[in-house]
Structures are given as C-alpha cells and as structure tokens.
C-alpha cells in the first residue's frame, strides 16, 4: 500500500476520533448540569469491562395533553414515530433535579432541553433514548453499585451535562440515603421496585 494513502487514512481516523472526543469535552465544559433520578442494574461484559445499565426518570415521557406540544393523543401518535428525533424540555427543581416538561419534534427556542430518539409509544408513554444508558465503572466497583441501585433505602442520581444543542454526557453517578420517612412511605405505598 502506498505510504501516502496509509498516512491519509490514519489522519482521517485520528481526526474523526479527535472530533468525537472534542465534542464530548465541549458538552462537558459548556453544558448545563442537571440531575436525573436513576434506576439500573450492573452487567459485566468480558469485552467491555464493568458498566452500569441505567434508566432515568425522563426515559418514559407521558403523552397526555399536558406533556406534549400536540393537540391530542391521536395527533401525537400520528406524528411521532419510532426512530424519530425528539426534544424534551426539562423542568428543574430547587435541588437541580430534572423532570419532563414538554416533548416536541422541533428544537425549543429557549430553556433546558435534551435531544433523544423515540423508541415507540406504549400508551400512555413514549419511550425515549438519550444515549445515557451505559456508565462504565472502575473494575471491582460494579457489585457495590449494583447493590445500591437495588436497595430501596437509597436514591440514585446521574449528573449529566447538556449542551445548547440538547446533547448530553454523563458526568457522575451517585447515591443519597433516603430518610426513614421516605423509605417508610415507599414501603407503605407498595411501590414497584422500578419506581422513581
């Protein structure tokens, strides 16, 4: 193979990888940080190492009138198809925890929003993937994290940075011990273990 072609191919791949890393770093440095309530489990892949599979409170978006920018449910289901890019406006509370505001097929003009892909509607929800489903952990820490994710005495949160285009990057995963009152209320209500 010609040496110039080989150098050209290598430069191309270095620029692609560099661009990807640079864009992620841009999101980390310039983005707005919010917390997402989180549930998950910890698989181990011998080829990928230890990572935690995460599900967030914003992965299921209610498709009722109050949540979407559509006139009614029929209009919503006609316009939003599996695989469509969607934008979810976020409401952020005093603890910086984000929840779903509204969903749209068009980028909002203002406010904090996150870009995702529709995985299809399962009435009354639309499932959305934001590319935040995997978080790699230090070797040997996976089991400890898995235990806390399944222990209902802890609340799990993912800290993410969201840039002005709606792209997000995971910064951290952490836990808070629930107060005795919160835990007792959870037990008394008979909540589903996957509830946030």
* Quantity of strands, as a count: 11
Q: Which blocks of ≥5 consecutive residues have pLDDT under 50?
A: 183-194
Q: Describe the biggest sheet?
A: 6 strands, antiparallel
- As a percent range, the share of helical residues equals 25-40%
Query: Please, how many helices?
Result: 4
Strand content: 35-45%
Which overall shape is indicated by the principal axes computed on the Cα atoms? globular
Overall average residue pLDDT = 78
Which structural class fits the helix and strand makeup? alpha+beta
Give me the Rg, rounded.
Answer: 20 Å
Distance between the termini: 57 Å
Order of helices and strands: HEEEEHEEEEEHEEH
Total number of distinct structural domains: 1
Can you offer a commentary on this structure?
The chain is globular. The longest helix is centred in the N-terminal third of the chain and has 28 residues, at 3-30. The protein is built from 4 helices and 11 strands, in the order αββββαβββββαββα. It has helices at 3-30, 73-79, 142-150, 180-188, and strands spanning 32-41, 44-45, 49-56, 60-62, 85-92, 98-104, 113-122, 125-129, 134-136, 154-162, 168-177. The N and C termini lie far apart (57 Å). It has 196 residues and is of the alpha+beta class. It has one domain (28-189).
């Amino acid at each position: 193979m010609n040496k110039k072609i080989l150098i050209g191919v290598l430069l191309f791949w270095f620029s692609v990888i560099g661009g990807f890393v640079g864009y992620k770093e841009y999101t980390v440095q310039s983005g707005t940080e919010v917390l997402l309530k989180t549930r998950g489990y910890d698989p181990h892949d011998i080829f990928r190492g230890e990572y935690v599979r995460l599900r967030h409170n914003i992965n299921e978006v209610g498709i009722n009138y109050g949540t979407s920018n559509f006139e009614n449910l029929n209009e919503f289901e006609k316009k939003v198809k599996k695989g469509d890019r969607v934008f979810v406006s976020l409401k952020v509370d005093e603890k910086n925890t984000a929840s779903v505001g509204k969903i749209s097929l068009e980028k909002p003009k203002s406010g904090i929003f996150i870009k995702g892909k529709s995985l299809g509607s399962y009435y009354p929800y639309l499932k959305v993937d934001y590319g935040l489903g995997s978080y790699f952990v230090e070797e040997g820490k996976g089991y400890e994290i898995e235990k806390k994710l399944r222990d209902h005495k802890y609340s799990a949160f993912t800290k993410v940075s969201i840039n002005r285009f709606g792209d997000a990057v995971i910064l951290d995963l952490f836990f808070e011990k629930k107060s005795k009152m919160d835990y007792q209320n959870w037990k008394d209500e008979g909540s589903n273990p996957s509830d946030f």
